[in-house]
Specification:
The protein is mainly alpha-helical. The protein has a domain at 29-83: Arc Repressor Mutant, subunit A (Orthogonal Bundle). The chain is 61% helix and 0% strand. The chain is built from five helices and no strands. The longest helix has 15 residues, at 55-69.
């Protein structure tokens, strides 16, 4: 029988995915809008234009999203949004 070497505090991938999906529930409706646009590849300036808000406000929303999702990588949060159905790639 083989065992997988894991760091003591590492969750299996399935548990980690469930945890991250649960964190999406912490986002406000506006943060979900920002995340949706971010996941579609929009930059902060484009998001600001689309939502008729300032670039500074977008930056604040993005920072809140990073904090709430316990991530610090734009690509990873975009992937999380796609995997959890917040964004369709069609």
């Amino acid at each position: 029988m083989s065992t997988i070497n894991r760091k003591p505090n590492c969750s299996p991938p399935e548990e980690e995915a469930k945890h991250k999906a649960k964190l999406l529930e912490l986002l406000t409706p506006r943060e979900k809008e920002v995340l949706s646009l971010l996941a579609r590849g929009y930059n902060n300036n484009e998001i600001a234009e689309c939502l008729h808000i300032s670039k500074h406000t977008v930056k604040n929303h993005v920072s809140n999203i990073y904090r709430k999702l316990e991530m610090d990588d734009r690509t990873q949060i975009a992937l999380l949004a796609v995997r959890n159905g917040l964004v369709s790639l069609d």
